[in-house]
Amino acid sequence: MNGSPWNPVLYKVSSKSIENADLLTFELDPVGDEAIDPIAPGQFNMLYAFGIGEIPISVSSILPSYPTLVHTIQDVGRVSKSLIQLPVGDIIGVRGPFGPEWPVAQVKSKDVLLIAGGVGLCPLRPVIEYILDHREQFGEVNVLFGTRHPDNIIYHRDIISWQSDPSINFQITVDHAFPSWRGNVGVVTHLIDKAKFYPENTISFLCGPEVMMRFGIYACLDAGISEDMVYLSMERNMKCAIGLCGHCQVGPYFTCKDGAVFPYTMMKPYLNISEL
Amino acid sequence: MKNIKEVLSDLSFFSDMSDEMLEFIAACGQNMHFSPDEYVGRESGSADYLFVITKGNIAVQLEHPTKGTFTIRSLHDGEIAGFSWIIPPYRMQFDLKAREHTSVVALDAGCVRKKCEEDHHLGYLMMKQSAIIMNKRLEDTRVQLMDIYSGRV
Ligand SMILES: Cc1cc2nc3c(=O)[nH]c(=O)nc-3n(C[C@H](O)[C@H](O)[C@H](O)COP(=O)(O)OP(=O)(O)OC[C@H]3O[C@@H](n4cnc5c(N)ncnc54)[C@H](O)[C@@H]3O)c2cc1C
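YS: structure for the whole thing
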């Protein structure tokens, strides 16, 4: 990381694209010569809306044109709303990158099962990009994406291209649908029957609401995937991002410093403890 | 093309059944085909069949008086549609609508029930497999009801 982890680097909003009613994807470029280090799939940055606050946001695509950053932000509260409302050309502060990567580069020749729920697709999109760029290094590749409603589907252009790509099995399901929706309806774990993989040779990455990840993990284990081949991204609310404030603590771990990407075996004792 | 017994024997639902049992159950079956948007079964109708989807996609739907049709679940190749056949008063609880050209093996509910009464071991296997699926669907519905994607993770 460049300089002090406390000092934000100035980036300007160079483009914004609307994903759905409350979700936008931003491209950010450094204002001056200083840029943060290259970011990897699974890592996140702290994005600072000046005078309002700072929030962790995962990298949602990795462009070849470093140092441009891509982040997708959902409007849920004060800081995310003010970031989303920034016009193109405005300046924000960026600290990062933080956290470990999805271990995608270390799993060559394995079958891959990605399970994403809602905005959990954002941190997994760079994994899909990586795999498609190195397709020959992987076995079967499955992406199961569950979201609330057809209106909440994001990354339409990517999804159309993934669905028409025979080298990847991309499946979507929604919890609730309008009458004309002809796709899948039901929880994301239901899609596991449509995935093709050899469980003993499969690695699985999950990101989404924690309840979804718990059921997703059970589905992976029931399908025969080994516990130590399951990884998840724990997107607990955080403040400092450097393991000081304790906001994001899960048991002995700080999701900012030790995660957000964790092996399931590390998180297993803590996942269904209420209010931990 | 596979005969009905071969179709059933490929499915985990029937995997514990002996050859004789499968033969028995298959004798209650017939192939049916539905066009897109054709109803496979209607809510409040008599649950005359248990449908094994061999190809296609069936939506489990409910009509809302003002909000239109809700699709609660979609079912695909290899899945079973309709469990009202096993639970008195054998009345369909939802609409089942084909979303594309859909083929099913329709097992005659009266015939299967009669065989289950005659052979309780067969009845137990049918009940056990149905309970596994019904439990999974109940669990899924509970998660859907939590509306987990409504806010941030
Ligand atoms: C490692 C990591 C990566 C993330 N990546 C993304 C991303 O790519 N895109 C994205 O849109 N968001 C992402 N988030 C979530 C994002 O950081 C929060 O939505 C944001 O901090 C909310 O701040 P706010 O001021 O807008 O809302 P607040 O006013 O702080 O909160 C609004 C509501 O959201 C709840 N909330 C806030 N943060 C979280 C959280 N992390 N988990 C569950 N509930 C929360 C609050 O309790 C409150 O009810 C990520 C979080 C983490 C920890």
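YS: worth flagging: The first strand of chain B starts at residue 29 and ends at 34.
IM: good catch. Also Chain B has one domain: 4-149.
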